[in-house]
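Sorry to interrupt, but I need a hand with the structure work. Leave the record below and I will have a look:
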Amino acid sequence: MIMISHRGCIDGPNEKENEPEFIENALDKFHCEIDLWKINNDLFLGHDLPTYPITENWLIKRRKKLLIHCKNPAALLHMNTESEKWGYHYFWHEEDKYTLTSRGLILTYPGYSCPKGGIAMKCEYWPKIKSGWFGICSDFINSFSNYCGKDGEF
């Protein structure tokens, strides 16, 4: 099962979520879901707003362990265009119960039933972690380390 840090958080919500250095620390041990914006020709990380500027090279170097949440249509178009070249794993959703990632995985909004092979977002809200899920994503991912199997690439 792939263990995914939610915005770089590993031991609970943190004001540093989506900061590039904070993401780096999480990537030392886990995969990471990040929030990506594209404004004009610039890329940013940030949940509610495009806050932290990053470069395409930043994404490329970390792409094998990133799950990229496109936060605006320009970011989604950018990922769709660049994914063939770089193999990005990305998705778009707002409050949809389910969405498909670019790799065809079902990503489940917190609290809704996660199918076998899916990714359970914010799994701290789940009553029970189930075997057969592709991955779990959490602000508290460190506390779920006992569920960690072979942690391969996306």
The CA atoms of residues 98 and 108 lie 5 Å apart. The radius of gyration is 14 Å.
